[in-house]
Amino acid sequence: KKFELLDENKEYKIYKKITRFLKKYRYEHYEISNYALKNYQGKHNLVYWTNEKYLGIGAGASYYIDNVRYTNIMNLQQYFSGIDNKQLNYSEKTTLTEIDQMQEEMIMGLRKINGVDLSRFKEKYGIDIFDAFPVIKSLLQQKLLALKKNHIYIPKNRLYLSNRVLTEFL
Question: pTM score, two decimals?
Answer without folding.
Answer: 0.84
